[in-house]
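Readers of this paper often ask what the protein records in our data store actually look like. Below, we set out a record of this kind in full and without editing:
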Amino acid sequence: MGLPAVASIRRNFPKARIVVLAKPWVAAVYRRSPSVDEVVVYERPGIHGGLLGIMRLALKLRRERYGLTFLLQNAFEAAFIARLAGIPRRAGFATDCRGLLLTDAA
């Protein structure tokens, strides 16, 4: 669960707007967190399924003009979506062949 990480991000960036992209089964948990300002539900399967769905989601995120993302899950797909969304700083672990998609890799 990423709640401790999100709470740490809030402590380090107290004025930041923190938005979490979460699958439906965990979205309610993040909505209850005082560290989270907004939850965007990642509906895959569903509206965000397949390449067209990923592009739809990336376009939605791009419109928000986020400046930084912390990729808490070690999935190539998460880094790919963040890159397609044009988020300028993408921090996370360089696992699952996603190192080239990150600007700040650990």
About this structure: The longest strand covers residues 19-22.
